User: What shape does this take?
Amino acid sequence: MQTVSTDARSLNWLVSNFVARVAAVTEAVVVSSDGLLIAMSDSLDRAVADRLAAVAAGLISIARGAGRPMGSGPVRQIVIELEHHLLIVMCISDGSALAVTATRPCDIGVVAYEMAVLVEKAGTALTPQLVVELQATLPQ
Assistant: This one.
């Protein structure tokens, strides 16, 4: 059995607790700068989490491509409004990102604020070593 560090347990708990605590939020994943899943909320199936991570990475790439010619600086967040859901992607300082789905209607200000708090905590914790550990401990 693989031993999981305190930092890895803490980040996984933060992501799952975020989904459980923030009204209307249904799913959350942390995705690496290369598009791979790092962490996911407990309620998610691995295949769904991988898909959400890939979507988030693709959106970040598109946003970077759109902003580059304008000299707009780094991507901070992306919000997609669908009829029944929101998809919000918020970048973390190391190039990774937090992707969240929420049902509509919801208070997007509260969701975004809580995401920013989680992103701040994750940004201080994520190291290359922790990313490798988190990816190795994901459910198959």
